[in-house]
UniProtKB/TrEMBL annotation:
Domain of life from the UniProt record: Bacteria
Cofactor requirement: Zn(2+)
Keyword check for Hydrolase: yes
UniProt organism field: Belliella pelovolcani
This protein's name: Glyoxylase, beta-lactamase superfamily II
Lineage, opening ranks: Bacteria, Pseudomonadati, Bacteroidota, Cytophagia, Cytophagales
InterPro entries in the record: MBL_Glyoxalase_II, Metallo-B-lactamas, RibonucZ/Hydroxyglut_hydro
Keywords: Hydrolase, Metal-binding, Zinc
Gene Ontology terms, MF aspect: hydrolase activity; metal ion binding
Domain Metallo-beta-lactamase as annotated: residue spans: 13-195
Amino acid sequence: MLQLRSFTFNPFMENTYVLYDETKEAVIFDPGCYEKREQQTLQAFVTAEGLTVKYLINTHCHIDHVLGNAFVKRTFNVPLLMHQFEIPVLKSVPSYASNYGFPAYEESEPEHLIDESDEIKFGNTVLKIRFVPGHAPGHLIFYNESAKICIAGDTLFQGSIGRTDLPGGDHQTLLDAIKSQLFTLPEDMTVYSGHGPETNIGLEKEHNPFVGKRARF
């Protein structure tokens, strides 16, 4: 059975996710751990659960989602996976990290580039991928239908959507992608977002003020 553990890290209150199943193989999504205590919290959980981390995955590469990339790669000796369109986004982080209060940010490089034609396999679990640009140019979401889990990054939130005023963002692109890629998932699929509480597809289709049935135009 697929299980999920979330951690909220850094001043952006970013959600880092660990997915693992009965085999104890795991993947880590969007490690926002910057401070030593945050890194220790993540490592302690993996150790306590006896997990073997197979992959580190970035849904996208804005600073709050990649602060712990180098730590996770080094600590668990795992490859970093991301979409090719996020390479320039990741490479730009050092140019502004200090301005955001992260002078000790460590750079990282991806080992594998993935897209919506790929699947993530670990243990007995398969995660499918969809391409949802608009918040970031190479934003990916990951889901498992049997477990009803979707790792949505900064695309869809409880009652909101990702901001689109950052470089590479586009508001209409995000709206269209949410409708075509997220809202075509099962309505009882739980959405785990990059910030804030979880929600589900059915609720957001009905009530989301940006893309739901009651959207204000």
